[in-house]
Amino acid sequence: MNAGDGETSYANNSSFQQVVISKTWAVLDKTLKDMYTRNNHNNGFPKCIKIADLGCASGPNTLFLISHRMDTIEDLYKHNVKNLPQLEVFLNDLPDNDFNNLFKLLPNFCGKKLKLECFMYGVPGSFHGRLFPSNSLNFAYSSYSLHWLSQIPEGLGKNNKENIYIVPNSPPQVCEAYAKQFQKDFSRFLSTRSEEITSDGRMVLAFIGRSFADPSSRDELVIYTMLAETLSDMAAQGLVKKDDLYSFNMPVYMPCLQEVESIIGDEGSFNLDKMEVIRVPWDAHEDYNDRVFDKNRSGKLVADCVRAIVEPILASHFGSSVIDDVFDRYAKKMVERLSKERSSYFTPIISLTRK
């Protein structure tokens, strides 16, 4: 993701993710309330609740989420304020995440009048491996991170050339390689969290998925297909190397619900308490106002959001000199697409209990 707080930074182009976070609140609140109810015979929560935000990114969205969780816990204790627990929040993301920008926001956040004492820590590292001591977490949360793979699937070679993800004309070995990598990553994620989360501890996870079983049956993640088309146009004009395009694949996978349920069942450490699906428009603000749809505004907004997330990956492979051109062209394609069809992300939200 793009660091800092500049025009193309993730911090300034993540309003979409904030909408997604707000749409998980119903599941999040119910999970926290159920934790409180189940432990009420022990006077509610532990004296110190330990929470991990896995794939927290940087910018105000992280604190937006923490603030809501604090409000929920305070509300549960509104008739028992003297026993309010303390809160430890562990903010996890990859080491190259802009933790400095994130922690610069803390003074204003911590300066608010909060009844609940909250202590926050940065935890750099991959959530595909161990991050915390055994039985140390009460609750873990992840929003729009788990569809990112730990690595590009092995064995792709140039089998998927001119595509950067799975599309209807991708050969079967490409689909199988992506599915196998996700199965490995998600299984390991669950296994490592099972060692870190206490018995009866909870997780709430939201990620991009797909609404059909066969990943090659139709192109639901058109947002990356359009990026591939942009790069292909530039390769045809000699602006990027064809070999660079043919060797490039995005390290993402959007699972169907059956895959998710199957992996959870096979891994065996968690009970699946709830799974629901929401649809979030590419321009997530479509849901929140009655203004006349502006394809140019929406097209640039969506393109800027994608850029903020994937620019470092593209720059490391194709070079930083082409990035502005890539996203100028991509924004035009996005405007054209949104003038014909307004698409959305298929987003599963799941709640899990540690056995």
Automatic annotation (TrEMBL):
UniProt xrefs under PANTHER family? S-ADENOSYL-L-METHIONINE:CARBOXYL METHYLTRANSFERASE FAMILY PROTEIN
Give the GO biological process terms.
methylation
Q: What is this protein called?
A: Benzoate carboxyl methyltransferase
Give one GO term, molecular function aspect.
methyltransferase activity
Q: Where are the transmembrane segments?
A: none
Task: Spell out the family assignment given in the record's similarity comment.
Answer: Belongs to the methyltransferase superfamily. Type-7 methyltransferase family.
Q: Which residues form the signal peptide?
A: none
Source organism superkingdom:
Eukaryota
